[in-house]
Structures are given as C-alpha cells and as structure tokens.
Amino acid sequence: MIIDLTMSTKANLLRQKLKEFFVRMFIRNRPQDLSATRSENSYFRDYSLNKLQGLAEGNINFTIEMLQIFLQNADKDISELKASCLYNNWERVGTLAHKLIPACEYLQLDKLARFLKDIEINSNNVQDRIKLVQLVDHACDTYSQIRPMIIIDLHKLKKDKVLGNY
Amino acid sequence: MKRDKLKIVIVEDDAFYGEILRKYVYQVVDRKIPEKDVSIMHFISAEECMECLDPETNIFLLDYNLVGDDNEASQNGLDLLKTIKKMCPQAYFIIVTSYGDFSTIKKFAMEGADKYVLKNEDTPIRINAILKHLIQQSLVRK
Fold first, then answer.
1. Which residues have CB under 8 Å from A108's CB, separation 6+?
2. Nearest C-alpha of chain A: how many angstroms from B124?
3. Is the ipTM of this complex over 0.85?
C-alpha cells in the first residue's frame, strides 16, 4: 500500500528537520571549510586585548577578571545557543546572540560579533532556518577557535602578575 | 559633618558589560569624589536590584533587556524604571542599551528616563559626559 504523505504537515516537518540535520552534518564535515579556516587564519586576527587593556589603565587584575568573566559567560551562552538552535528556540537564540555582542566588541572579536549580529537579525524573522543554523554553527566554530587564545593570554597575564612584569 | 555617600546602581544582565560600566563610572567618579564617599553597586537582574534597593540611590544605569540566565520572564529595564521611579523620585536614570529604535526610546522618555545611551563605540564618551553632569546635579541636590 502506498501512502502519500506529501500533503501531510507531519511529513513536511519531518522533512524539514532531516534537511536541517543533513545541512548541519554537511557543514561540520566539509573538508574545504576546515582547510579554508586553517589557511585563511582570519579568525586569529579578529581578537585583541588592546581595548580592554586601555580601559584597564595598567590594572592587570581588571584585565584578568574581565577575561575570566568573559570565558565563563561565553562558554555557557555559546553552549546554550547551540542547544536552543537544536530545539528551534529562535527567540532564545536571538536573545543570547544579542547578549554576547557587547562583550565581543571589547575583545575586538569582530568576526564572532558579525555572526552574532546576523543571528540576531535573522532570528527576529525566521524565514531561512538553514541559514540561521549555519550562522550558529559558524559562531560556535569561531568561538572554539578563539577560546584557546584567550586562555593563553589569561595564563600569560597571571604569570606577569606573579612576576610583576606589568 | 558627615557627608552622605554618592550611590550609583548599575543593572545589567551581562556580568562582563556590567563590570565595564562599573569601570567607566569609577573612572568618572574617581576624579571627582574620594573613594570612601562613593558606592557603586552592580546587579544582574531587576529582582536582585529590588531586593537590595536603597531609596537614597542617586543615579541608576539600567539595561533594557534583562533576561535571566534561566530564560524565565523577568522584569525588563522599563518595568524596573517604573517601579524605582516611585521609590526614588529624586534619582537620575540613564538607560544603556543596544536598542536604538525610536519607539523604545520614546517609551523610556515617557517613563521619566533622564538619558539614553546606546551600546556602541561612543558609549564611554557619552557615559563620561553624562555622569559628570549628573554627579554634579546629585551633589547640588544634597
């Protein structure tokens, strides 16, 4: 017996979810994306402590504290961003992106901030879910590439503090 | 004669940005008033602010979007402004937010916000100028 599900809402929803799943898998596993990331190296230029250190006016404790707060918040918010995206909670996705933007601007994380702004705009009127999923994936990937650099700087600052090199 | 402390409250749900604001405020205040005569408090939610509210607070810096970590419905900056305005009619209110649309600005103006600052590159300059003026006004009121 052949059942025609083309007009069924459930089937359409299932199809949409499958499409999103495969797009996610495709983005994650696309080899040219990874090589582009490595060779372009552009993520690594989109981060600087200059602005934060300028605001700190030589207070190393302030810079250390701010980096710790940033990592603590961003780790939580980025993982929630991923989860909210998986559950199609676009309102929360938009709220989290909006919340993360100002902090990114202080660490001059321009690329991440750009993705987050796009997520915020697109989440207000979800017309293209696939694009939104891609943007969330890009934002998460960008953060995971920048995070180790922030941790290295944090360790350096802590070491400088102990040695009095500031 | 004992001088009353200048009390400034920041309500910002993002801990990072809240600390940045505290730093800006401190930079302005530090050049005008001795540290012991100033109190700068930072709260991450409207509810936390209401629990510890001092009716003698001079200046409030409020964010608009105050979504809690648990995504529970929380009072936003506008609701908070309405509530605090009744309890601290003498206080000054500075709204610091990323929402720059006219309808949001109008809502805050209607509820009695004194200044509206957008979170962007110019935020430190604007905060600096506004705070200098409002601190002066607060000291005159005392």
1. A46, A47, A48, A50, A51
2. 10
3. no
